[in-house]
Every structure is written in structure tokens, then in C-alpha cells.
Amino acid sequence: xxxxxxxxxxxxxxxxxxxxxxxxxxxxxxxxxxxxxxxxxxxxxxxxxxxxxxxxxxxxxxxxxxxxxxxxxxxxxxxxxxxxxxxxxxxxxxxxxxxxxxxxxxxxxxxxxxxxxxxxxxxxxxxxxxxxxxxxxxxxxxxxxxxxxxxxxxxxxxxxxxxxxxxxxxxxxxxxxxxxxxxxxxxxxxxxxxxxxxxxxxxxxxxxxx
Length: 210
What we know:
By secondary structure, the protein is of the alpha/beta class. The protein has helices spanning 35-48, 65-68, 78-89, 106-113, 138-150, 175-195, and strands at residues 20-27, 52-59, 92-98, 124-131, 154-155, 160-163, 167-168, 171-172.
């Protein structure tokens, strides 16, 4: 006897939209076009090749008097408050700064002076810096990582540094740095996928100078 059971055609599964990682870049450079931001561009391109991202930039040198004149969170202007909240609500912070005389500039530090003490707890933070020579790379471990340790943030284990000689203008050329960027992100990509909220932060916050 022949089994005449009907054959049920498989229904193609609906494609699952990948979650979006909300990335906020804190730019500690005085210039938007800079080696620091050239390094950030490569970091974001590498990250974009592994996960869907939504990126917002905050240029601390362009936040204006509502930022520079504020001694506490209650004194900032509304647009600066919006920038601070973006950083606090990000899925991933990219903290990027030039190194001057062994440390980050004061404007970069002032931004984090205004961040709520526990707002970055357990938040992934990727550290990136540029400097005139390789000796400035020490600031990543001796200045930047302790700063975010205070906030109890999850700093990415592999920090990224590029010296002036690694660039042609603002274009990163050194393949060794490219390799370090890829290693840094691959080390934590599974974590970042679990942190991706799938929700966009929306258009760039109206930060002065952007």
C-alpha cells in the first residue's frame, strides 16, 4: 500500500532583521578633520562590516559656552544635556582623543566630568588615541583606561593607538594598526551583538558646530 500522505511545502522563514548597535563617538580633537577622526573612520568601517550600526558624533570642542562654562550637570544648556544623554544611552562608546603631553585634553575630560557617575557602568567603551610618537600610546593604559574604570565601564581589552607617521594627512595607512582594529573588535563582537538594542538614536543630536 502506497503512503499517500500529502506533501507540505516548507514556508520560507522570514528574514530576521539584525539588531542595530547604537554607537556614540566622543571626539576629543579640536578639529573634526583630524588624525584622530581618521582613525575613528577606520574603526567604524571595520565595525560596520561585522554588525549594523547607527553612529552619532559628539565633538567636545564644539559644544559651546553651555558646556565650557558649566561646573555641574545642572548648569549645562539643553543641547549639551542632550549630548550627555546620548553618551549615557549608547550601546557602545568610542572614546577617541589626541594625546597631548602624556594625557587627554581637558575638554575631553570635562565632558566626562559631567556624565552621571553610574551611567556608564557595564557599558562597552572602545578606547582610541593618536599622538606624535609611539610613546604616547602609554596614555591609553595609564590615563584613558583608569578614567573609564572609575565609571565601572567595560573597556574593550585591546585599545587602539596610531602615531603621526601612520597617516598620510588624516588617512590611516599602517596595516599593523588596521590589524589591531580588527582584533580589537573581533574580541568583543559577540558581546556587542548582545548589547545591540535594534533601536536608532535618531538623527544627530543638535550639537553646536555639527
